[in-house]
Predict the 3D structure of the following.
Amino acid sequence: MKRIRRICLRWIPLLLVAMLAGLGAATAPRPTLKPFGPGSLAVIREANRGRPFILAFWSLHCAPCKEDIVLLTAIHARYPQVPIALVAADGPNEHAKVARSLAPLRLGAIESWAFADDFAERIRYSVDPEWRGELPRAYFFEADHQAAGRSGVLDPAELDAWLVRVTRSKSPPR
Amino acid sequence: MRLTTLAALTSLLLLARSVSAAEPGAMQHAGHGDPTPGSPGLVDLGATAAFDAQGTLWAAHKTAAGVSVSRSRDLGKSWSAPVAVSRESEPTDAGADARPKIALGPQGEIYVTWTRPMAKPYTGEIRFTRSLDGGLTFEAPQTVHHDRQVITHRFDALTVDVRGRVVVAWVDKRDQVAAPAAGPGAYRGAAIYFAISDNRGKSFGTDTKLADHSCECCRIGLVPRPDGSVVALWRHIFEPNLRDHAIGVITPDGRAGPMERASFDGWAIDACPHQGPALAVADDGTRHAVWFTASPAAPGVFYGRPREGRVEGLRKIGGKTAERPDVAVLGREVAVVWKEFDGTRSQLRGLRSPDGGETWQEVALTAADGASDHPRLLIWKGRFHVFWNTRLRPLSVTPFP
């Protein structure tokens, strides 16, 4: 009995602290998910001026996209100097689900975005008028921000070749 | 003892974290100073509609109360108050090719289906309800399929066959799940299943497979024929990963008939197009199809008449932002609609053929500011109408000139 009381005394304050920390996390202005609207690509490009980056679109409703996200997190660990913006093509009604599905992943400095509204055509058009919404869809921006779009699951070898090339060129590391 | 407490502590922390991640309030807010007509946080626009024998238009759409049914007696100019048909705010599938479906029976029955997402990603159940009192009340929803695994049963399609039987088809992953554990790729994609109710939707018969290896995430076109069969058109995965289309038949006795390839774009991709085809079948059996492909050789929206493993009358539809086409047929008259974003507005565009798809003329329709659903063609009194649910003009109907 005494032992139980001792354990309780030792652990309950810790438990409370942990819960408070959890609550703190819930209210902190942590930018878990940024709304991606028609002006967002310009913002991302401005933040990455003069260096290559990857813009990758996925969705809660796209099973093949899962592989890509895992691959991109692995890539990010190896090439942290190449920024990655991950954009869920899911509207505000699904942002909570998007955040939940990303929570277990080690995203590191990968930025997470999600479609700011349900006018998907307009958002897609702002990125690339020729993209019809198929997912996954990724854009590989060179240091001069020339970009090539690619639909479908990423090919690790192809991705690696691109990363080797762009990180070898003169773009300064962060 | 200590270890257990530690474990409990850790899981509590994790729980708190996941709750915090799921909290919409934790997110930044959209579009400061941007008068976006995309309207964050509103109900999905996914909707379908059907005319009954008296010309009353019935729409299945979403409201804050869930899947709802509304009625218009003046071609969409005014609508009755929506009647909620899903219960206890059960969630409904979102995403580009998910929407509630409505179909009418020969005795005024109103049938509605939708997909209820389940806890795991990509999983769902096909839900069904009916009204036998002219839309005043709807029965408690039931799940159409007998398979109750928490897997993909999604992208419901609904029709009523010539004998009044309710036919529901959907995308189903039971065969993928049951495939030998040779890792991913052991079974290409999903399968198309269907179930039939011969008692006005009181219950459904067995789950029957129409075809293996459908694409996982696209709407299905489903059309009843005078001989009692039902024709289905869907995006398939031909070996090794060609996401072109296939056409199949549910025979009059409710079995899976033959399947054949219906498009030959050669779009080799491991992706979710989220854009299924549409189908109309003329009285003489000619199949009119519209679909989307992003095959590098010829990307875009296409019209064609699949016949015995080839496509006749192939034609590209619209410009480079054309999407979400639909097709309808009335004797020799064929109508095609689609929407096309021009950088500012979504243009609703149409094509009409007077001769079964041999020659075409473009018709002037309308345009929408802000978000919009797929346009759908309907037929009433020998004329085509376009049903289009847009944010600024909900459940609108535009006559086809």
